[in-house]
């Protein structure tokens, strides 16, 4: 509350400054540098957010920058892979990683597969036995269900990029430890920085918790869009959980339909976006 002319003048000046910055740098004014910004709580400011109210992913690129997270040793060391310019370069630099004990137990490093310019990245928890044996994500029974889930919303595996938070299989498919997650997660951040997707489809509470860096139950996250660093995250059940609990499939179907509606709205908006590149190419060329 203001009691005199001085605070009102200061407020007016601040608003003018914000308007000026907004006109110069657009939406990015409101995207803090990731290095100084904690990951957002999905509960903060988005309770009850409907997809009508929620801004769609930012059309501006780069949309996602790797956060500098204190305490994650790989960042502190400044390893060469941080400078990777492509997914293949990143793979070449990290596929022999033994930064945690899982690296000594794996059969294969499971990096990720799919479209390196995908607008949707699908993120699971960690490789299972089949994935470990083949070096590819989501190729076992859960992977086959994921393929059908994507097909149900008119997406092919090659349309999206599929990966896990962890690149190596935890023994007996146990849940990854917080230490393993924090050690391996920078690789996922780098993958996202290179791909620059608009949407994340996050499979299961463990993967969502790893991204949001806070423990959540799946019921707290699924069924609504969650803003995440200029992207929009949709959380649903992991296909392996759906195989064990088929009664949850109707909820997963709702989540997938939500993702499809958001994606369609994003594409609609993008195609109306005035093109400044003289390109009639896809979204990537225009935005
Ligand atoms: S799980 Fe991640 S951090 Fe651990 S060894 Fe594998 S790639 Fe490295």
Structure characterization notes:
This protein has 287 residues and is an alpha/beta fold. The protein has one domain: Uracil-DNA Glycosylase, subunit E (3-Layer(aba) Sandwich), CATH 3.40.470. The protein contains 11 helices and 6 strands. The protein has helices at 5-25, 73-77, 87-94, 129-134, 141-152, 178-195, 205-212, 218-221, 239-244, 249-272, 283-286; strands at 113-114, 120-124, 161-164, 199-203, 226-228, 231-236. The protein has a 6-stranded mixed sheet, sandwiched between helices. Strand 5 (226-228) and strand 6 form a beta hairpin. The radius of gyration is 20 Å and the shape is globular. The termini are far apart. Bound molecules: iron/sulfur cluster. Iron/sulfur cluster (SF4) is lined by residues 97-100, 102-103, 166-168, 180, 183-184.
């Amino acid at each position: 509350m203001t009691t005199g002319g001085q605070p009102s003048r200061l407020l007016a000046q601040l608003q003018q400054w914000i308007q000026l910055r907004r006109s110069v740098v657009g939406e990015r004014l409101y995207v803090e540098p990731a290095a100084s910004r904690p990951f957002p709580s999905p509960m903060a400011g988005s309770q009850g957010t409907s997809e009508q109210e929620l801004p769609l992913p930012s059309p501006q690129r780069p949309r996602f920058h790797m956060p500098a997270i204190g305490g994650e040793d790989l960042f502190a060391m400044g390893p060469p892979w941080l400078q990777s310019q492509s997914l293949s370069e990143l793979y070449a630099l990290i596929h022999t990683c033994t930064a945690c004990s899982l690296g000594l137990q794996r059969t294969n490093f499971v990096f990720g597969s799919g479209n390196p310019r995908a607008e949707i990245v699908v993120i699971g928890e960690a490789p299972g036995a089949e994935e470990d044996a083949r070096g590819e994500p989501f190729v076992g029974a859960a992977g086959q269900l994921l393929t059908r889930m994507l097909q149900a919303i008119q997406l092919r595996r090659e349309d999206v990029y599929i990966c896990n938070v962890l690149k190596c299989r935890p023994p007996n498919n146990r849940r990854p430890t917080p230490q393993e997650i924090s050690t391996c997660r920078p690789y996922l951040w780098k993958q996202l920085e290179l791909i620059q997707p608009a949407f994340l489809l996050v499979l299961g509470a463990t993967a969502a918790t790893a991204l949001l860096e806070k423990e959540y139950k799946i019921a707290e996250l699924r069924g609504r869009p969650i803003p995440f660093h200029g992207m929009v995250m949709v959380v649903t059940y992991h296909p392996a959980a759906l195989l064990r609990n088929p009664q949850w499939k109707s909820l997963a179907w709702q989540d997938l339909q939500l993702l499809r509606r958001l994606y369609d709205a994003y594409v609609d908006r993008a195609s109306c976006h005035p093109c400044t590149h003289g390109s009639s190419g896809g979204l990537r060329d225009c935005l």
